[in-house]
Amino acid sequence: MTQIFAYIPFSNGVAEDVAMEFPTAAAKIDKGASLTAVLTGSGADLDKVANDMTGLYAEVIKINHNDLAYPNAEVVRKALVNVIPAGSIVLAPHNTFGMDLAPGLSVKMNASYAADIVDFAGVEGTVLKASRQELGGAVSTHVAIDIASGAVITIRPGSFAPVEGKTASGAVVDKSANAGDLSAKRKFLEVVQAEVGDVDITKADVLVSIGRGIEEQENIEIAEELAKAMKTVVSCSRPIVDAKWLEKGRQVGTSGKTVKPKVYMAMGISGSFQHLGGLKGNPFIVAVNKNPKAPIFQVADVGIVANIIEFMPELTSAINDL
Amino acid sequence: MEILVCVKRVPDTAENEFELNGAGNDLDRDDLVYSVNEWDNYAVEEAIQIVDKVGGNVTVITVGDSESEEVLRREMAMGANNGILLSDDAFEGSDGKGIAAILKAEIEKGKYDLILTGAQADEGAGQVGGMLAAMLDLPYASLVNKIEVGEGKIKVGREIEGGNQEMNEISLPCVLSIQTGINEPRYVGIRGIRKVAGVEIPVKSASDLGIAADSIGKAGAKTKRIDYFVPDLGAGAEMLEGSTDEIIAKLIEKLKAKGGL
Predict the structure, then answer these.
(1) Alpha carbon of A170: minimum distance to chain B alpha carbons (Å)
(2) Residues of A in contact with B228 (CB under 8 A)
């Protein structure tokens, strides 16, 4: 029988949403598989989340240690290698922690590795078929994962339907004594909170958001004029912050701000999943992009194939003439 | 400080519109434009800036065919001192672990204080750095957006959710994967590339590295791409068409209805 272990990330005593998505992913791998939640941490937060997970998972393993109070990937990896049986399938989220943990874990468990999976098509023999994306979401691929010696797999948060309500009545098993030597060459120091910029994009009902399509720093003024006409502010995708054209506080995405506007004007934004991960509350999305194949058109409500440098001034003057 | 930066030649997402080939099982690769993986430029720039401060050398390395030499030269034109090309028909079809094992074999022949990779490349897995570190038993940090070099150890910032930064102290040697935005990679002109055109870049094969051919390449791969496909993502956006005036008139009506104006 396939044994699947899901690593549950949590903070401040609350499991991340992906904890509700692992059971769906596990069932798509193998309906008959056993599914166990694994949590590492320390103290009351760990106990609370482990207890919460018994409503979703038939078995919940907790590993309690002071060195696990903050999830340092090197320390977590050591604990997991000692607790999870060889040959298992281990699921983790494809986020900044999963990316830190999972590749090395697959080496230490001598297991196959597959990253950022968005769907599974089941197991045939010892081969698990799955889907993922490449080239920034421009293309999709099927992959075959050899699970004969186990596999470590990260799944894309938000790609599997969350299970609702209480679907299991599991028990918590304390495996802290099995964690082994947790000494590490990497030491966690602190989390530095993101700076609050002069503009708060998280409160806006409408956002004019720009991406690579803006082409040059001078062109940001064109977006500022459209934002002014729409009585709002300019936000952006990652490349604009990387280029230092706007400050970090203006960035929408998993590594930036989470916004909940009513209307989102995606101007020259290709629509990577990291960007869309920062867009909540089901806004009305208008996408303007000169590439008709841009992934943003798959999620937008309204799409226009155009060069934003030419399109935005036309729209601005039409709005100003209203 | 001796710094090794692992780089990759990839299809340029900014320059290409990707289409499937006639059979639908691969990309139509005939006219693809290739360049250095974007993340790798940040890694090379960071390495050069560290060496400018504390001394040492930057070596760039890649696993690829003869065409990958151009990306090594481009990074050498930025300021990397040496290049190494790991190339063998046996390497083709390697999965992430295969690539990490090939790099490991060469890294063990040298002595590096710091090994950098880009945080991810064209396949979007972000896997080689973490695997390489685990294989070499070195500490690792991913998505690094700040490095402060100290004595025998470094302080690194990792980009985590919400734009926050996780600070860590790591002993050297170590492996780091570099996130975009950590610096501003310098521009490389034609003149810079001409200057390094004559520099010899050693090419090493599987036998040079002492790697068993069946542990890497397609035969050794545990995760294999089967095919490319077009996902069924539903209807997608309602595309507005017509003259610019017509499009704008339709858009304004919709924005009014949805509270955008």
Answers:
(1) 30
(2) 139-141
In a domain, A131, yes or no: yes
Q: Is the pLDDT of residue A305 over 70?
A: yes
**Predicted model pTM:** 0.93
User: Which residue is associated with the tokens 């294989």?
Assistant: B135
Lowest mean pLDDT, pick from A70-74, A270-274, B87-91, B102-106: A270-274
Note the ipTM here: 0.94
**What's the average model confidence in pLDDT over A266-290?**
94
Low-confidence ranges of chain B (pLDDT < 70): 232-234
Whether A315 is covered by a domain: the verdict is yes
Do A122 and A228 fall into the same domain?
A: no
> B163 to each of A194, A254, A272, B64, how far by Cα in Å?
5, 8, 17, 34
Q: Strand A233-236 vs strand A206-210: parallel, antiparallel, or unpaired?
A: parallel
What does the DSSP assignment read for B153-170? EEEEEEE-GGG-EEEEEE
- CB-CB neighbors (< 8 A) of B160 in chain A: 96-97, 191, 255
Q: Is the pLDDT of residue A41 over 90?
A: yes
Closest CA to A288 of A305, A270, A272, A301: A305
- Residue A60, SS3? strand
**d(C-alpha A105, C-alpha B225), whole Å:** 21
Residue A23's domain spans which residues?
3-178
3-state secondary structure of A202: helix
| A71 and A118 co-located in one domain | yes
Same domain, yes or no, for A52 and A139?
A: yes
Residue whose C-alpha is closest to residue B8's, from B48, B61, B45:
B61
Predicted pLDDT at B234: 66
Residue A54 CB neighbours (<10 A): 17
In chain A, which residues have their Cβ closer than 8 Å to the Cβ of B135?
107
User: Are A169 and A254 contained in the same domain?
Assistant: no
CATH number assigned to the domain covering B2-220: 3.40.50.620
Q: Would residue A215 be called left, alpha or beta, if left means φ above 0 and alpha means ψ between -120 and 50 degrees? A: left
